Amino acid sequence: MFRHSLHKLLRGLVLALWGLAVQADGMSAPQINYILHCQGCHLADGSGTAGKVPALKNAAGRFLYVPGGREYLVQVPGTAQSALTDCEVAGVLNWILLNFSETELPADFIPYSTVEISRVRPHPLADVSAARARLMAEISAGTRSIPTNLSGKH
Ligand code: HEC
After folding, report:
1. I need a labelling partner for 135 at 20 to 30 A (CA). Which of 21, 45, 142, 146 fits?
2. Which amino acid residue places its CA nearest to atom 12 of ligand 1?
3. 77: CA distance to ligand 1 center in Å?
4. Could you tell me the residue range of the domain that residue 51 belongs to?
5. Which residues line ligand 1 (CB under 6 A)?
6. What is the distance between the alpha carbons of residues 64 and 69, in angstroms, rounded to a whole number?
7. Hey, whose CA ends up nearest to atom 2 of ligand 1?
8. Is residue 55 packed enough to be buried (19+ CB in 10 Å), middle (13-18) or exposed (0-12)?
9. Is 20 part of any domain?
């Protein structure tokens, strides 16, 4: 009797784990990292919470147009201070930009590379709100930066 229920329990467990594996398989690693490390604040659809957490949805890509904006997306504490490796940060930022902000992306968008993240991430923003305010003002003013991936020669 005991043996029978144990068997049932084990079978249930195996099925549950298999279900999880299949689910995880259907998602990319960057998406899983987003869910685990970013979604708590930025929400599943990247919409954020007005006045508290900025929306990434239909928004993040705008930073790529202004000088310093590309670096800002890496230096912002939620990204730079996450537990993710530089390679994973590159993956999750590219995923955010392509999934939430594809319509805002510049036509000449160059995905982040691990080398670029490693170069920019160790340099924190002195004042996050001030940096964001300056970038938002430049975005509104329509300032356009020269595209660069910062990871190699210009
Ligand atoms: C604890 C809540 C929290 C978590 C977790 C978080 N963020 Fe953020 N994020 C914020 C806040 C708040 C801002 C606005 C800038 C600031 O004050 O830090 C922000 C800004 C950003 C921005 C710039 C967008 C803008 O409009 O300023 C990006 C890109 C970003 N986060 C990406 C991420 C990524 C990638 C992760 C996961 C690895 C993440 N965030 C995790 C709260 C969070």
Report:
1. 45
2. 53
3. 7
4. 29-141
5. 37-38, 40-42, 53-54, 56, 59-60, 73, 76-79, 82, 84, 92-93, 96, 128, 132
6. 5
7. 41
8. middle
9. no
For the chain, the average pLDDT equals 86
Burial of 135 (0-12, 13-18, 19+ CB in 10 A): buried
pLDDT in tens, 42-94: 999 999 999 999 999 999 999 999 999 999 999 999 999 999 999 999 999 99
Domains of the chain: total: 1
Strand partners, 107: none
C-alpha 60 to ligand 1 mean position (Å):
10
Round to whole Å and give the CA distance between 38 and 32.
Answer: 10
In a domain, 153, yes or no: no
Query: Tokens 């504490």 map to which residue?
Result: 77
- Which CATH number does the domain housing residue 124 bear? 1.10.760.10
pLDDT tens, position by position, 101-114: 999 999 999 999 99
